Amino acid sequence: MIVVTGATGQLGRLVVAELLKTVPAAEIAALARDPAKAADLAALGVAVRRGDYADPASLDAAFAGADKLLLISSSEVGRREAQHRNAIAAAKRAGVKLVAYTSILHADSTPLGLGAEHRATEALLKESGIPHVLLRNGWYTENYLASVPPALAHGAFLGAAGAGRIASAARADYAAAAAAVLTGAGHAGKVYELAGDSAYTLAELAAEVAKASGKPVVYRDLPEAEFRAALEAAGLPAPLAALLADSDAGAAKGALFDDGRALSRLIGRPTAPMAKMVEAALA
Fold it and tell me: Phi, psi at residue 82, to the nearest 5°?
């Protein structure tokens, strides 16, 4: 039995879909805080179980019979460490034989504010004694593609990444890697730094958007505080704006770059090129 947490999230759904290509639905359990949101997965024969990181009792039932567990990091930044602690403790009680955790690229050295909770979770996994594998996911290309519509509307792509190179990959690429680890052997104890095959600056991304759309789009590099204020002015909640601005500032320091190509080796194919994803987003 392979259990996938956060199965109704953007990454979780893709992982379940990838697993279904090679694993019988009856051997997959999808966890969701609201099982009703996973009705489509249940219709495919996947076991849908209620699981809430903040409710340890729900996790005991959700992890029952699990051989392998994909622990997708909580979306509640600031509460992740406590929530992940609950999940790891429940996995140990359930006798899970392998935990795969979606961490962050170069978690041990990243300057990103997001890194602290991931480092804490990696430490909890080590302390637990459960065999585990760290999937240190880099940036999702989709994170930047979400800014394409306003960039086209205003003729400018805003950021604070300077000339930092970003080796992002498609969410589907990271999902395929998780599925490969969950269905393969010999991954316990491994640390995978996962990133796209090629890297780009935000100026190059803006140029690609301009080329693909036929509309003028330039990159405007801002100080971190100004970028954060611009995001808030655009309607983003203050904590999310701060997170994105911090991530861009980290990118300027190389935090979103890796050229090891571990991701494409795991999935057995090249990662999705940024230019192709821009074309698809515009289409």
Answer: -65, -40
Q: For the domain with range 2-137, which CATH number is right: 3.30.40.10, 3.40.710.10, 3.40.50.970, 3.40.50.720?
A: 3.40.50.720
103 contacts 126 by C-beta, under 8 angstroms: no
CB atoms within 10 A of CB 51: 25
Residue with tokens 């190179």: 165
The pLDDT of residue 241: 93
The stretches in the chain having pLDDT less than 50 are none
The 10s digit of each residue's pLDDT in 73-92 is 998 988 999 999 999 999 99
How far CA 130 is from CA of 55, 101, 218, in Å, comes to: 21, 12, 48
| Chain length of the chain | 283
Helices 274-282 and 202-213, packing angle to 10 deg: 40
Q: What backbone torsions phi and psi does residue 55 show, to the nearest 5 degrees?
A: -125, 90
CA 206 remoteness from chain centre = 23
CATH entry 3.90.25.10 includes domain 145-149+156-164+197-258+269-282: yes
pLDDT of residue 78: 86
Closest CA to 68 of 177, 187, 192: 187
d(CA 203, CA 221): 9
**Exposure string for 66-99, b = 16+ CB within 10 A, e = fewer:** bebbbbbbbeeeeebbebbbbbbbbbeebebebb
Give the Cα separation of 73 and 63 in Å (integer).
16
The segment(s) of the chain belonging to CATH 3.90.25.10 are: 145-149+156-164+197-258+269-282
